[in-house]
């Protein structure tokens, strides 16, 4: 079998911790420090999915021990989740999780799709305040306030 065969047989053991733990840990730390929330979403979703995988493994280890390809399947799936070219964590969040998990609830009312997206990005308390403001003054007043805030930030 030789050295190459041994490495191929235990590839998941050599690469797995780096792919599944070290790189996501580093990327999560960078995401915390970045001003964008998109990378936060990617890495929070990754850790949630990785936790589910770990719970699955702990629950079904007696079955999984008989599946020789499980560790490689897990490695490939985690590569898809982790690698920036795929952004699998963000993909899963946007296409599957977000539909079912809305902590702040759905935005109801006569809003355009863009307006709904803006409102859904806010915390529940902020959203309630903005919705009350919109009900009282209209969405145009919110847009004027946003433009005024943008002008203020450009001055400083």
TrEMBL record:
The chain crosses the membrane at residues 14-32, 44-63, 69-93. The keyword GTP-binding does not apply. The keyword Membrane applies. Keywords: Membrane, Transmembrane, Transmembrane helix. It is a multi-pass membrane protein. It is found in: Membrane. Its main location: membrane. InterPro entries: TB2_DP1_HVA22. One of its GO terms (cellular component) is membrane. Pfam families: TB2_DP1_HVA22. Belongs to the DP1 family. This is HVA22-like protein. The lineage of its organism: Eukaryota, Viridiplantae, Streptophyta, Embryophyta, Tracheophyta.
